[in-house]
Amino acid sequence: MTTASDDETTADPIGLPEQEQRFRAPVRFGNIPVESAPKGWDPKNPGFRNLYPVINLPTQIVDRVSFGAPDLEPNRLIWGDNLHVMRQLPSESVDLIYIDPPFFSNRTYNVIWGDQNEERSFSDIWEGGLDGYLVWLNARLYEMKRILKQTGSIYVHCDWHASHYIKVEMDKIFGYENFKNEVIWHYGLGGFNVKRWFPRKHDVLFYYAKSWPNHHNKIRGRVSKWMEAKYSLEDEQGRYFVQDGTKYYLKGGKPIDSVWDNDELIEHTMSQTSSERVGYPTQKPEAVIARIVEASSDVGDVVLDAFCGGGGGRRCSSAIGTPMDHDRSVARGRRCHCGTVEERRRHPRAWLRSAA
Q1: Which pTM was predicted?
Q2: What's the pLDDT score for residue 329?
Q3: Helix, strand, coil % in the chain, rounded to nearest 5
Q4: Bigger pLDDT: 286 vs 8
């Protein structure tokens, strides 16, 4: 068992961004109340500690794991409530956060687990409805902002059930000006048997920076056959074409924009027969999260996945492909563990598969 030091558990709360101009009614409307603070916020007791008191619980190291890089220090597998664990992490210690929290789907998910065919379930039904869900999420987003470095970024994975409300709450916590992208992950599997609305075929990733400038790598997709035909010449520097006596070299495929279609991720789609599947109905493809890691982290950076998503367990956290040498925390009894960016980039397939 391990506990955090007093310095970590008593970290000073951080304030909310000053953005009064974004949350006020025009003068001609009179004294109309405008909610500028996130739901559940108490200015007299910041950090949502009025609703979620600080509990200095020990966190249990369940295991130490490695993903194909024996020269690196093994990672820690932690069991605990993610809010309490994050409160024990030092401020400004993480470069990138990706979370796949419950979606407010109002469903209970069941899965058959292990060799004994044990039935396990997790609930996405919330006491207090949408407001209760947002307060619960806000308390965790607040701690994520605290532990992010000034150059850090966060991606929040959600869908139509609550995405519009989450965006408003994130504006209040991280700042409207720090919003970078609404990334659309468009997939094509299932869900077409509807008659009264268009099939719902995408998830949303909200991408925020802690402050400007944040760390971001420009990434490119695959080289298309059209591009291969255009850049038909090749020398020691790579493929190129010549125009007006000037060589133009192929830098890669088309730059990735804010719509991620499975045409780019086709070999990583989560069909029922996918080799990535571990049985959880809300598991996300490895390629989606690997793209986030590539865009917003470098070798040696620290990345936190505070939920491990609906996939849970070792396979999902290894599929994240995240660089991380802090404890990774979990919610609702879901386990996960961490990997370093060196492992992810030097041994990409070995450590993705080693925890299956």
Answers
A1: 0.81
A2: 34
A3: 25, 25, 50
A4: 286
